[in-house]
């Protein structure tokens, strides 16, 4: 690549979802200038291009040739696993290809053939049916990060210009999230957030705001004691380490515009507490960023949308934002 920065490695996501057409649309619109390649089946991508009448020639290549090919067409690095082209009809038969796409994208970064991983949406239920052992993308990426030889503690951050939010507990039923919340988990998560906001986002002294678990942040113990027994002790420990952190704050008053101006990232205690405001404020532009990994990973902040797959209705804005952010974080 003669001095050029390596391209970004993009996964295809679930081939029955909107990932293939989003990749094509992102190349077509060329909104992010950073070159990328897609780990997918060339036949799948060609079929999607024909179906959607996209003027996006698919160029079969390897990672080394992707940057040079990008101006001429969408570079596709072929998978070894079989891929069925059935938009809107998810199948466990595609699970091996979906997982291979992720694993090879991470390996491309480890080998220096790519600078970052950009993932398209997967359907976890489909992968579970095929025996997938991880709750989701984030946890699987943490497992793949072991190849770097250092322990990883992956943390999911939903990023947009309007709001950055990190759920401390992620893919758990609500009844289990409260039981899983510990002071140690909050401390570990906040440390990763503080470190990566400094190192990757260039924020000299990040401001972290921590939500309470219960209504009104427990109302002094009247509506729950987790704020007193779990969250407040974690905040005290983090302040002792020099981390700029406040809380626990009532979640119902910490996401309006004036409140958001007072912090750089919000730590939510469970998935929906953070993702509802994040998706309300920036549904089309939100990006899922995994912190705590030895590589950069971004993803659109939406699902596979099987109901509209193959119809040309999917909005590529979030994937475009994910490519742009991955490029920015690896410059």
Keywords:
331 residues, alpha/beta, 38% helix, elongated, Isopropylmalate Dehydrogenase, 16% strand, 2 domains
Description of the molecule:
This protein has two domains: 1-152 and 296-331, Isopropylmalate Dehydrogenase (3-Layer(aba) Sandwich); 162-281, Isopropylmalate Dehydrogenase, CATH 3.40.718.10. The chain is elongated and about 60 Å long. It has helices spanning 19-29, 42-51, 63-69, 95-110, 124-129, 137-144, 174-180, 183-199, 226-240, 257-260, 271-281, 317-329, and strands spanning 8-11, 36-40, 58-60, 74-78, 116-118, 155-159, 164-167, 207-211, 244-249, 265-268, 287-291, 296-300. The chain has a twelve-stranded mixed sheet, with helices on both faces. It contains twelve helices and twelve strands. 38% of the residues lie in helices and 16% in strands. The chain is of the alpha/beta class and 331 residues long.
Lay out the secondary structure.
Blueprint: E1 8-11, H1 19-29, E2 36-40, H2 42-51, E3 58-60, H3 63-69, E4 74-78, H4 95-110, E5 116-118, H5 124-129, H6 137-144, E6 155-159, E7 164-167, H7 174-180, H8 183-199, E8 207-211, H9 226-240, E9 244-249, H10 257-260, E10 265-268, H11 271-281, E11 287-291, E12 296-300, H12 317-329
Parallel strand pairs: 1-2, 1-5, 2-4, 3-4, 5-12, 7-10, 8-9, 8-10
Antiparallel strand pairs: 6-7, 6-11, 11-12
């Amino acid at each position: 690549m003669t001095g050029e920065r390596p391209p970004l490695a993009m996964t295809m996501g679930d081939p029955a979802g909107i990932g293939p057409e989003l990749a094509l649309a992102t190349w077509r619109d060329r909104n992010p200038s950073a070159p990328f390649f897609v780990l997918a089946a060339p036949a799948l991508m060609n079929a999607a291009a024909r179906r959607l009448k996209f003027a996006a020639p698919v160029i079969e290549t390897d990672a080394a040739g992707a940057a040079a090919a990008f101006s001429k067409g969408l570079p596709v690095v072929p998978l070894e696993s079989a891929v069925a082209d059935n938009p809107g009809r998810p199948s466990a038969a595609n699970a091996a290809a979906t997982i291979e796409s992720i694993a090879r994208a991470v390996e491309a970064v480890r080998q220096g053939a790519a600078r970052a991983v950009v993932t398209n949406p997967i359907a976890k239920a489909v992968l579970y049916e095929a025996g997938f052992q991880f709750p989701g993308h984030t946890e699987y990426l943490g497992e793949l990060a072991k190849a770097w030889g250092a322990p990883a503690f992956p943390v999911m951050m939903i990023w947009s210009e309007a709001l950055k939010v990190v759920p401390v507990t992620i893919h758990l039923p609500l009844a289990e999230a409260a039981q899983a919340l510990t002071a140690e988990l909050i401390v570990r998560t906040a440390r990763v957030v503080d470190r990566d906001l400094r190192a990757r986002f260039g924020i000299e002294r990040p401001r972290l705001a921590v939500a309470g678990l219960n209504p009104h942040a427990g109302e002094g113990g009247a509506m729950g004691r987790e704020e007193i027994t779990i969250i407040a002790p974690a905040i005290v420990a983090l302040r002792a380490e020099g981390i700029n952190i406040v809380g626990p704050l009532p979640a119902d008053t910490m996401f309006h515009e004036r409140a958001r101006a007072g912090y750089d990232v919000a730590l939510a205690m469970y998935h929906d507490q953070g993702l509802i405001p994040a998706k309300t404020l920036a549904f089309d532009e939100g990006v899922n960023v995994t912190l705590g990994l030895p590589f950069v990973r971004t993803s659109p902040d939406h699902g596979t949308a099987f109901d509209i797959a193959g119809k040309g209705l999917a909005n590529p804005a979030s994937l475009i934002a994910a490519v742009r952010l991955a490029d920015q974080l690896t410059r």
